[in-house]
Amino acid sequence: MNRADRSPLAARPNDDSDANELHDMQLPRLVAPNTLPFRRTIRRTELRQIVPLADTTIYDMERRGEFPRRFNLTARCVVWDLTEVEAWLDARRQASDSSQLKRAPSPDVRQRKRRPVKAKPAS
């Protein structure tokens, strides 16, 4: 005897009234509807994989308001909102594509104390 033969629906004759009963039957809800949207948070190790910046750079940018702020889940657990980090990355990409980001100036190699620049021979 297979599993389909043991079900209570298989024992009853198949007619349209059975199909309508099954269609109108309300199934129990396993998960309560969530009124808040799902927000994913990430810890420092995941942030480092997404944003290749040093911790001190991230903290300095947070302090200046240039990077999404972290928040404490507990006294020892610090997280960032993933949607904010992804939005920051998208904004940086758009700013980079439109040349709005200022690039760091090239260092003046003539001011080095070690390995001074050799004077070019006069041709």
TrEMBL record:
Residues 111-123 have a biased composition (Basic residues). Gene3D superfamilies: 1.10.238.160. Residues 1-26, 93-123 are annotated as: Disordered. This is Transcriptional regulator. It comes from Sulfuriferula plumbiphila.
